[in-house]
TrEMBL record:
Keyword Transferase belongs to the record: yes
EC number(s) from the headed UniProt entry: 2.7.11.1
Lineage, broadest ranks: Eukaryota, Viridiplantae, Streptophyta, Embryophyta, Tracheophyta
Name of the molecule in the record: non-specific serine/threonine protein kinase
InterPro entries, per the entry: Kinase-like_dom_sf, Prot_kinase_dom, Protein_kinase_ATP_BS
Domain (Protein kinase) ranges: 12-92
Name of the top EC class for this enzyme: transferase
Catalytic reactions of this protein: L-seryl-[protein] + ATP = O-phospho-L-seryl-[protein] + ADP + H(+); L-threonyl-[protein] + ATP = O-phospho-L-threonyl-[protein] + ADP + H(+)
Binding residues annotated for ATP, in chain numbering: K50
Annotated keywords: ATP-binding, Kinase, Nucleotide-binding, Serine/threonine-protein kinase, Transferase
One Gene Ontology term from the biological process aspect of the record: signal transduction
């Protein structure tokens, strides 16, 4: 049985899917610089545009930037193509 090769996104090595919802998948990833384990929320640009979710995503990012709670993931950074949004990297 062959292992899947991890994909690199920015400074993150992205691995297996750890969760999936209607509009996004959550992938396990590791920061290649620090070794820290994170979760990356992957959202398809086509889904965001088709469902007119750009404002909703912007609100989510704004809220996640300020929320600090032991039971809520912490937003580290937002990675996106210049044309829209892509991945939200969050602490596991």
């Amino acid at each position: 049985m062959m292992r899947k090769v991890a994909r690199k996104v920015g400074k993150y090595e992205v691995g297996r899917t750890i969760g999936e919802g209607t509009f996004a998948k959550v992938k396990f990833a590791r920061n290649m610089e620090t070794g820290e384990s994170v979760a990356i929320k992957v959202m398809a640009k086509s889904t965001i545009l088709k469902n007119k979710m750009v404002d909703q995503i912007k609100r989510e990012i704004s809220i996640m930037k300020i929320v600090r709670h032991p039971y809520i993931v912490r937003l580290h950074e937002v990675l996106f193509p210049l044309s829209l949004f892509g991945d939200l990297a969050m602490n596991l």
